[in-house]
Specification:
Jelly Rolls, eight-stranded antiparallel beta sheet, 14 strands, Cupin-like domain-containing protein
């Protein structure tokens, strides 16, 4: 742990069966030790690598998975190559038993976000969080499997519950406001679809990335063992290190926003496309509009309720009409 980093706050005594939906939607990271000690997958992992391997294969659908494989030079870091023309790994499609045996010539391998209902169709019958099953029925559930890998700091839009099944993982988290201090790479060309920090957390270069020293003062760190869990709030930056020869993590992603609401990332990209090329004075004017209409309260009390449109509560039908109007204009 870096000297300036703080431990993630702990919520002890909370299990998969007892945690509430409100607690799962915490706006601060929470370490949940002993969250799922009796899950069969966790029990298998505690018996050793052969047992958890057998358990995984017993639930596997047989459909090939995609793994990122890299040589020893990568040191397990899932990242770009030296000149940023591509990545430092190669995708490999193979069956799980082949990947668990370690792909030939690969010092490091990493299976990211394998959708549980597709690749492990009976897994959720034995590993479940009732509060999510009841109130976040559309939660996306994934398994992450590999050896000693490092995933660069990134932020996800949904709320995230990460449960370690096998091995040990270290998470380093930063609040959303540390964006400018983390030196985030390109939005549209990243190793796994999320913009990532370009700082190597194993050896931060504070000459090239001087503001990272400020980010480190806001860092929170936690190391999880099998059965432990971590709540990662929406848009919190998190760097993930798998520390054991075989690591398995299960995570749940969910959002409380209406299904018809577009992603804020789409709004961000459209705003960048529309506003970035404007002169400074016009940018300042639009900043005021965003502060008022998006980040402020909108102050629509002086407008008759039936005329408020986007400034008032929308029904699903009205929201879809607005989306259709925008799409029609964008396609011109």
């Amino acid at each position: 742990m870096w000297p300036a980093a703080q431990p993630v706050a702990t919520l002890a005594g909370m299990t998969a069966d007892s945690i509430s939906y409100a607690q799962l939607n915490s706006t601060q990271p929470l370490h949940l030790p002993g969250f799922a000690p009796h899950w069969p997958a966790v029990c298998a992992a505690k018996q050793g690598e052969p047992a958890i391997t057998d358990y995984l294969l017993s639930h596997y659908s047989g459909e090939p998975l995609t793994a990122f494989v890299s040589d020893a030079q990568s040191a397990g870091r899932v990242f770009y190559n030296a000149d940023f023309s591509s990545f430092n790994f190669k995708p490999l499609q193979a069956r799980l038993e082949q990947l668990l045996a370690a792909p030939a010539g690969a010092a490091h391998w990493y299976i990211g976000a394998s959708f549980v209902p597709r690749w492990f169709p009976h897994w959720l019958q034995q590993q479940q969080v009732p509060a999510l099953a009841q109130q976040a029925k559309d939660a996306l559930v994934s398994l992450w499997i590999g050896n000693q890998s490092r995933v660069a700091a990134h932020a996800d839009l949904p709320q995230n519950l990460a449960v370690v099944i096998a091995g040990r993982r270290r998470f380093t988290l930063f609040p959303p406001d540390q964006l400018a201090n983390l030196y985030i790479g390109p939005l549209d060309a990243s190793p796994a679809g999320r913009a990532i920090s370009l700082v190597d957390f194993a050896k931060p270069d504070l000459v090239q990335f001087p503001k990272f020293a400020q980010a480190m003062r806001h860092a929170q760190v936690v190391e999880l063992a099998p059965g432990d869990a971590l709540i990662i709030p929406s848009m919190w930056w998190h760097h993930v290190e798998a520390l054991s020869p075989l690591n398995v993590l299960m995570n749940f992603w969910w959002r409380d926003s209406p299904a018809y609401a577009p992603s804020p990332e789409q709004a961000l990209k459209l705003a960048m496309l529309s506003i970035n090329a404007l002169p400074p004075e016009q940018k300042a004017a639009w900043r005021a509009h965003f502060e008022h209409y998006v980040f402020g309260d909108g102050n629509a009390g002086h407008i008759p309720q039936h005329l408020r449109g986007l400034q008032g509560p929308l029904t699903e039908t009205e929201a879809r009409q607005v989306r259709a109007e925008l799409l029609n204009k964008l396609n011109r």
